[in-house]
Design goal:
By secondary structure, the chain is an all-alpha fold. The chain has 2 helices and no strands. The longest helix has 17 residues. The chain is elongated and about 55 Å long. The model has no long low-confidence stretch (mean pLDDT 76).
């Protein structure tokens, strides 16, 4: 997963930082900045992450031909 999960401390910290950046840029007021930060972080949830090693590829029996061993 590329980003923190909603409800976690890391998610709240990231959302607060984004809100502050949006507010300071003068693009939106407090309420709009909060909505924009939430929307952006929710969109990031659906993006694929990356595999950290072979274990993330699944059992060897489930791998197709040509996939790493």
């Amino acid at each position: 997963m590329p980003g923190p999960r909603p409800g976690s401390n890391a998610y709240d910290v990231e959302r607060a930082r984004m809100r502050k950046r949006i507010e300071n840029s003068g693009r939106a007021n407090d309420r709009e900045a909060d909505r924009a930060a939430n929307r952006y972080l929710r969109e990031q949830q659906g993006r694929p992450g990356f595999v950290r090693g072979e274990r993330g590829l699944g059992p060897k029996g489930e791998r197709g031909p040509g996939e790493p061993k």
